[in-house]
Each structure stands twice: as structure tokens, then as C-alpha cells.
Design goal:
This protein is an alpha/beta fold. It is built from 7 helices and 5 strands; from the N terminus they run αβαβααβαβαβα. It has a 5-stranded parallel sheet with strand order 3-2-1-4-5, with helices on both faces. Helix 1 crosses helix 6, helix 5 crosses helix 6 and helix 6 runs parallel beside helix 7. It is elongated, with a radius of gyration of 19 Å.
Length: 191
């Protein structure tokens, strides 16, 4: 027993950083996982903030993946005309909602929860970057406990250059945010 007590500081000094780095490695591996097949759902939500998210969600809507699409976290000056090609607007315009309220992942979850309630949606495809997916699913799951959520990660251009400092910084920042969300930091329960 004394030996274990003596080893505790060494484990703390070496073990916790090793555990942190192994977790980061798993997080990066998970962030690079390609999207898989999806069941048909009632809705799709695209969380804005990076390349390919809106385009991917529009493609899924066009392919009949779901009936409705929410694009959450849209800039105040954006319009459907600016986001859609003319033929997309004619074909899909009435099935798309632009959400202007969200400014964070928690905001995306709250905005999505209101939209889901208004449209009586029970299944949802979540479109966001692979590195953002874990935290997005965690926050959406907290606000939508009775809705089936299916991840559809997008691989942004930055993820093609994993050795670049800016990419590593982005991944580490998102990993820390996810760990914080797991621990409950910055989470505001909804009423």
C-alpha cells in the first residue's frame, strides 16, 4: 500500500498527461472519420461556422434525406437567396429555415430545440465539422433528449493538413472545449 502511495505523484505527473494526449489522439482520429450511411429522418440541422456544412446539408435535403432543414447560426445579413442557387431556392426554399439567433454551440442547441418543437421533429441529422461533432452532439443531446440524433461530419479543408500549427491549434482548442462540455462547464440548462 505504501508503494502505491509513493507512486501516486509519479502517476499524476506522467499518467495524466499521457491520458490527456491519448485522448487527444482518439479525438483527432474520430474527427477524421468519414460520414456513414444515415436512416431517413424528419429534419436536418447544419451548424454554421465552417466550409462545407451548408452545402452538405443542402445536398442531403435534395437527396431526400429529410423533409426539413434548419441552418443554425446564420449571419444577420444572410438570406436564402444568398445561400441557395436559384434552382435550389425554387425546389427547396419552403423547406429551409434560417436560424439567426445562435452564436455558439449551446446557442445552436437552443435554436435547434425551438425549431424541433415548432416542427414536431423526432429525428435529426446533424451536419457540422468532424472536429466539432462530439461537442455538438453532446449539447444537442442535452437540449433534445427525446430526439434521435445522427451525426454527419464534414471534413473541412484545414483537416487535410494535420501537421500545420493552425490545424493542431484548432483541434486542441476543440478538444479542450469538448472536455469542458463533458465536465459541464459553460452549460446553461434551458428552461
Amino acid at each position: 500500500m505504501r508503494r502505491l502511495v509513493k507512486l501516486a505523484p509519479a502517476f499524476t505527473f506522467l499518467g495524466l498527461p499521457l491520458l490527456f494526449l491519448c485522448g487527444f489522439g482518439w479525438f483527432v482520429h474520430d474527427a477524421l472519420r468519414p460520414a456513414g450511411p444515415l436512416p431517413h429522418t424528419q429534419g436536418i440541422v447544419a451548424l454554421t461556422g465552417g466550409a462545407g456544412r451548408v452545402e452538405t446539408s443542402l445536398r442531403l435535403l435534395e437527396q431526400g434525406q429529410a423533409q426539413w432543414l434548419l441552418i443554425s447560426g446564420v449571419a444577420p445579413q444572410a438570406s436564402q437567396q444568398a445561400l441557395l442557387l436559384p434552382e435550389q431556392e425554387k425546389k427547396l426554399g419552403g423547406r429551409i429555415t434560417l436560424g439567426y439567433q445562435a452564436r455558439s454551440t449551446i446557442g445552436n442547441a437552443e435554436e435547434t430545440a425551438a425549431w424541433v418543437a415548432d416542427n414536431h421533429i423526432s429525428s435529426l441529422v446533424v451536419v457540422t465539422a468532424g472536429y466539432h461533432m462530439r461537442r455538438a452532439m453532446l449539447e444537442l443531446g442535452r437540449t433534445l433528449p427525446d430526439v434521435a440524433l445522427y451525426a454527419y461530419p464534414v471534413t473541412p479543408p484545414a483537416m487535410r493538413h494535420l501537421t500545420q500549427l493552425s490545424t493542431l491549434r484548432l483541434l486542441m482548442t476543440e478538444y479542450l472545449k469538448w472536455l469542458g462540455a463533458l465536465a459541464g462547464f459553460a452549460h446553461k440548462p434551458t428552461a
